[in-house]
Structures are given as C-alpha cells and as structure tokens.
Amino acid sequence: MNKAELISVVAEKADITKKDAEKAISALFDTIVEKVAEGEEVRVVGFGTFERHDRKERTGCNPQTKEKITIPASKVPAFKAGKAFKEAVDAN
After folding, report:
1. Do the beta carbons of residue 10 and residue 21 sit within 8 Å?
2. How far is it, in rounded angstroms, from Cα 41 to Cα 21?
3. Which fold is adopted by the domain 3-83?
4. Could you tell me whether strands 58-61 and 42-44 are parallel, antiparallel, or unpaired per DSSP bridges?
C-alpha cells in the first residue's frame, strides 16, 4: 500500500474527504519525523514506538578492493511494534 492508497482508506474509514485525510496523515508523519530527529521517542500504545538509535563509528571493508574503511557514526530511525500490532499480524 502506498501513501495515496492509505489516504483513500483512511478517508473512507473516518468518513472524511481525501483532502482532510491527506492533511492529517501528512501532519502525523511530519510530527513523527520531527520528534524522532530531535531525539524524542514517539510511543503510540498498541501500535508501536518510533525512536532514534545512534550507531557508533565502525570499520568496514570495501568488497571490491578489500580495503578497510571507516564507516562514520550516524543516527538512524527505528520502529518497534507494540504488542497489539504484533498479535494482529500473527493472527492473520
């Protein structure tokens, strides 16, 4: 399912226009991205938790030249599914 399909389904289920559904979904996604980028955790009980993980600098290997390279530290987004989400997926 892509974003347009998600908007259509949400609009239908919430009995709102597609335009309003698109505004709400975009605002939700934007807020999650902003808060996680700031280092905050976004927890939706029953759905899951969005958070930022810090990756340490590490040594890697260029597979073509076998040369050792340093992979710099980075911050990456992470999602951990909640119990109800996991149970719903497992039930199907």
Report:
1. yes
2. 24
3. HU Protein; Chain A (4.10.520)
4. unpaired
Q: What is the sign of the dihedral through the CA atoms of 45, 90, 7 and 16?
A: negative
State whether residue 25 is helix, strand or coil: helix
CA distance 28 to 10: 13
pTM of the model: 0.81
Tell me the per-residue pLDDT of 4-21, one tens digit each, with 9 for 90 and over.
999 999 999 999 999 999
Contacts 24+ apart (CB under 8 A), 81-90: 81/47, 81/48, 82/44, 82/45, 82/46, 82/47, 82/48, 82/49, 83/46, 84/46, 84/47, 85/46, 85/47, 85/48
